[in-house]
Amino acid sequence: MSYKTLEHATDAIIEVTADNLEEAFEVAGISVIDTILNRSKVEENNSKKITVKGKDLEYLLYNWLEEIIILTITDGFAGKRILLDITKNDEYQINAEIFGELINLRKHEFKVEIKSPTFHEMEIEIKEKVRMKYLLDL
Q1: How far is Cα of residue 92 from the mean position of the Cα atoms in its chain?
Q2: How far apart are CA 71 and CA 131, in angstroms?
Q3: So what's the pLDDT on residue 6?
Q4: CA nearest to 79, candidates 52, 40, 135, 137
Q5: I want to staple 24 with a disulfide (CB 3.0 to 4.6 A). Which of 49, 71, 77, 130 is the partner?
Q6: Which of 127, 63, 129 is nearest to 94 (CA)?
Q7: CA atoms within 13 A on the CB side of 137
Q8: pLDDT-derived band at 8, boundaries 50, 70, 90
Q9: Based on the number of CB atoms within 10 Å of its own CB, is 15 exposed (0-12), middle (13-18) or buried (19 or more)?
Q10: Which domains does the chain have, with CATH numbers?
């Protein structure tokens, strides 16, 4: 499971590779946090639970990335580790617990603010591995 940041002039394009869908969404969440701050300096003193829904996998990914941005930028919570499960009934749903602490701008070395995820260039491919690509508007 890994991610890499692809070249883009003004935004961040991230490509995730993982063994399964849950792992891919965990890594996607981590990629957002890593883009915003220095996650290596975050301690797991607290946790937040969030639920995210989407009518399909693309909407689920968009809503998931948006929720991680809100948790980090708006709520001021620095995530270190994410545990989640994905269910599908009428729609997809993520139930997640994010472990971390309240943001300290000096300690966590704030890097950049993400405005939002976008559907532009979003790809989700499920084969032997799961590959996702998405653009974050900085």
Answers
A1: 16
A2: 24
A3: 73
A4: 40
A5: 130
A6: 63
A7: 8
A8: low
A9: middle
A10: 2-137 (3.55.10.10)
Q: Quick one: tokens of 79? A: 């995530």
Tokens standing for 106? 């000096």
Mean pLDDT of 90-118: 96
Residue type at 80 in one-letter notation: K
Residue 21 near residue 93, CB atoms below 8 Å: no
Lowest mean pLDDT among 4-13, 53-62, 66-75: 4-13
Structure tokens given for 48: 């937040």
pLDDT at 4: 80
Chain-centroid distance of CA 76 in Å reads 15
Residue 1 amino acid letter: M
- The dihedrals phi and psi of 112, each to the nearest 5 degrees, come to -155, 150
Write the CB contacts of 108 (distance below 8 Å, at least 6 apart in sequence). Answer: 37, 38, 39, 41, 42, 78
Give the pLDDT band (50/70/90) at residue 68: very high
Residue where the block lists tokens 């490509």: 15
The Cα 135–Cα 113 span in angstroms is 14
Q: Would the pTM count as exceeding 0.85? A: yes
